[in-house]
């Protein structure tokens, strides 16, 4: 971000403002952690801040301070649209194209508020007046930390803000193991622990909150795991019927795709999850090294994300989606075997 942008934003925030903060649809730990971290910071500056999520998020995120104040646009559309229309400033966090906010897209595009994007995904759109975009960042939470620092307010970080930011750095780095984790990330994490983030408790809240059914669903997913050795690829399917059998709840499939990537010699992993209600197959892709699942997802599955983690969707049946995936793999064999 340019020095002038920071000065402008500092000036903008020097008097109380009506602020709406928006994460992407199907918010994850980084989306919820970054929006809540920023929310608590802005509240300390006496702003009238409100987080509006496009839709609900998993139960394993429902313990973060003030999380219950988050409005959901899909079930509270009218009140949310009014807040968006009346806002002075709209922060969009952890996404960089308005369609990633689902049905909020129209209201956001129409709003005259000053828009500020903070995000670490590839290829940002140009809808915001101020764009803080950095694909080298581990997480949007790490960027919110830098944002607060750029505004000269690191001393405002208390245990609540530290907890929120720790959460998203932890979830987006796979607990500090993905290549996006830098020494700077660790320094920030150390500072957040000093400020009062309870690292063991946060980890426990997120990762040790499985239900019996969600573990059985994981078992089903692992039973469905297939490997294509010549493409160094593993994939998993979950049909709507299987999800129903194990009483699927939002968040139950989070992280399952990574099991494929834990296989020796596999560098591309996918999961295909049938969603009959939305009429789509939701796709998650993960890779190791330089193989870009962001490119693969943009080219074939109407999605995007990062080099090593991306998502997308398909309107074909579950079987046909898998067939399509298998049919495109040979064109990537060279890249996959050069890793
Ligand atoms: P996940 O597979 O966990 O849903 O998402 C992996 C990464 O890709 C996340 O950073 C997420 O924000 C992004 N992502 C997931 N689905 C989509 C999508 O449909 N479109 C785009 N552009 N990005 C996505
Ligand atoms: Mn993120």
UniProtKB/TrEMBL annotation:
Q: Which GO terms describe its molecular function?
A: 3'(2'),5'-bisphosphate nucleotidase activity
Q: Does the keyword Hydrolase apply?
A: yes
Give the UniProt keywords, A-Z. Hydrolase
Cite the DHHA1 domain residue spans from the record.
245-316
Q: Which residues form the DDH domain?
A: 18-169
Q: Look at the named UniProt entry and state the broad enzyme category this protein falls under.
A: hydrolase
EC assignment: 3.1.3.7
Annotated coiled-coil segments of the chain? none
Q: What is this protein called?
A: Bifunctional oligoribonuclease/PAP phosphatase NrnA
Q: Which organism is it from?
A: Mariniflexile jejuense
């Amino acid at each position: 971000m340019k020095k002038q942008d920071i000065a402008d934003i500092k000036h903008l925030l020097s008097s109380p403002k009506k602020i709406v903060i928006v994460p992407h649809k199907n918010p994850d730990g980084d989306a919820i952690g970054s929006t809540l971290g920023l929310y608590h910071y802005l509240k300390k500056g006496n702003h009238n801040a409100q987080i509006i999520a496009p839709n609900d998020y998993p139960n394993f995120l429902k313990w973060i301070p003030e999380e219950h104040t988050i409005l959901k646009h899909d079930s509270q559309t009218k009140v949310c649209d009014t807040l968006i229309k009346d806002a002075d400033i709209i922060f969009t966090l952890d996404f960089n194209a308005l369609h990633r906010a689902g049905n909020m897209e129209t209201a956001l595009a129409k709003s005259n508020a000053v828009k500020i994007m903070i995000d670490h995904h590839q290829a940002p759109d140009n809808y915001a007046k101020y764009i803080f975009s950095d694909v080298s960042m581990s997480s949007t939470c790490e960027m919110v930390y830098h944002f607060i620092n750029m505004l000269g307010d690191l001393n405002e970080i208390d245990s609540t803000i530290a907890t929120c930011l720790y959460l998203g750095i932890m979830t987006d780095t796979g607990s500090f193991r993905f290549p996006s984790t830098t020494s700077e990330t660790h320094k920030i994490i150390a500072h957040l622990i000093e400020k009062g983030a309870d690292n063991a408790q946060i980890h426990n809240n997120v990762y040790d909150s499985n239900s019996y059914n969600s573990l059985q669903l994981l078992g089903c997913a692992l039973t469905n795991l297939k490997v294509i050795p010549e493409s160094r690829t593993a994939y998993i399917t979950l049909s709507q019927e299987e999800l129903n059998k194990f009483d699927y709840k939002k968040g139950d499939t989070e992280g399952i795709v990574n099991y494929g990537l834990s296989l020796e010699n596999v560098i591309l992993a996918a999961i295909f999850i049938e969603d009959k209600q939305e009429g789509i197959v939701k796709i998650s892709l993960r890779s190791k090294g330089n193989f870009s699942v962001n490119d693969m997802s943009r080219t074939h599955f109407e999605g995007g994300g990062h080099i090593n983690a991306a998502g997308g969707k398909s309107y074909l049946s579950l079987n046909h989606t898998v067939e399509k995936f298998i049919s495109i793999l040979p064109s990537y064999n060279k890249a996959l075997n050069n890793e």
